[in-house]
Amino acid sequence: MRFLPHEHTAINTALTNAHIDPASVLFVKRRGWLHIELPERPDTFTFFREKSTKLNTEGRWEDRVTYYVGKDKEHEMEWPAVMHAFGAWLKVHPRQAVRGSTSE
Q1: Intervals of the chain under pLDDT 50
Q2: Integer Cα distance of 88 and 78 in angstroms
Q3: Helices 5-17 and 79-91 sit at what angle, rounded to 10 degrees?
Q4: Quick one: pLDDT at residue 100?
Q5: Other beta carbons within 10 Å of 62
Q6: How far is CA 18 from CA 8, 24, 41, 89, 103, in A?
């Protein structure tokens, strides 16, 4: 999975607003999930984007993009909710972050 342009812009803006240099962040793709790793932080923020196309009631195809945060593929999210979760994750102090948290 690669960043879509609006995702990349939003992630970089959130990092900059949190006084984190985006160049110091590691972005890793593992099995379709995008992992965002910060220096000196034991946990990672992960999300997954799923694109699907369904036939609507009018017989027309509708594209849909669904996001999932962490390893939870049961709770669908929209992009603003992903950014809200990312912002909350950024606010956790590195010493408070624990491997295996909700974002991993």
Answers
A1: 99-102, 104
A2: 16
A3: 30
A4: 46
A5: 11
A6: 15, 13, 14, 11, 18
pLDDT of residue 94: 63
Which of 25, 29, 2 lies closest to 89 in space, CA to CA?
Answer: 25
Classify residue 31 by its DSSP letter: T
Task: Locate 6 and state its tokens.
Answer: 């609006």
- Under DSSP, is residue 64 helix (H, G, I), strand (E, B) or coil? strand
pLDDT of residue 25: 93
Specify the amino acid at residue 4: L
> What rounded mean pLDDT belongs to the chain?
86
Residue 25 sits at φ, ψ, to 5 deg, of -95, 140
Q: What is the DSSP letter of 42?
A: S
How many residues in total does the chain contain? 104
pLDDT of 74 reads 80
Q: What is the pTM of this model?
A: 0.79
